[in-house]
Amino acid sequence: MVKQNNNKIHPEPLQLPRHIAIIMDGNGRWAQRRGLLRHLGHRHGMDALRQSVELCRELNVEILTVYAFSLENWKRPREEVDFLMNLVVEYLDKEEENLHRQGIRINPIGELDYLPLQVRARIEQAVSHTAANSDMIFNIAISYSSRREIVTAARILAAQAATGCLDPQDIDEERFASALYTSGQIDPDLMIRPSGEQRISNFLLWQSAYTEFYYTDIFWPDFGKKDLQAAIAAYQRRERRYGQLTIDN
Ligand code: IPE
Ligand code: IPE
Ligand code: MG
User: Fold this and answer.
1) 135 classed as catalytic
2) pLDDT of the residue at 13
3) What is the pLDDT of residue 6?
4) How many Cα atoms are found within 13 Å in the side-chain-facing hemisphere of 42?
């Protein structure tokens, strides 16, 4: 990868991340700093999301994966959880047509069984509406836990082995990855976490084996196109080696 010294994105497709993952964090603190309720931070986070989606499409990013709600987030106060569930519906009501027009396929990943029925139904409607789109996959991680995803994959493969459909010797990395929610997708090239936290919080543990991480102190509701551009530019200055001494692009 060619190194650069400024914050401009290098336009060569080879140097652009093909898959970007974002942990949309800092909504609550964004609101609290302004003396507002946490809820308002979550709502403003939707505007930030629209900007990142648009820029990813403009740059022909193939996959955008956003962390919207973790399995652990169910432990938050009932009121906040309810608000966030309603916000999922509000987001789809507002954005689904936009996403569809941009050729984006909506693909929820996570323990969807835990969602309230009407939220799940609304998501399924958006999934089928955008199912034929192929310009970008938009993975929305909701009720998501990477460890749970990995355990579920192990269970699927174990069940196949138990019925004799699968020889345990045939379980390799590729086979294992195909039992994850992200089956068939390339791994994230770039993972972005705003809000100053520098941890992965149970997100894409398997898939991020060689992902480049980018942290920023900006809270998610303030994360605009120029911030995503800066993250991509920083990514383009990295040298990915995958354990080797030289890299070929
Ligand atoms: C991220 O913002 C959104 C969700 C986890 C649902 P937070 O709600 O975690 O915001 P902070 O980290 O408390 O500021
Ligand atoms: C991670 O953020 C999950 C999402 C952004 C949806 P959290 O705010 O829940 O993570 P922790 O608790 O700081 O690790
Ligand atoms: Mg947080």
Assistant:
1) no
2) 65
3) 64
4) 18
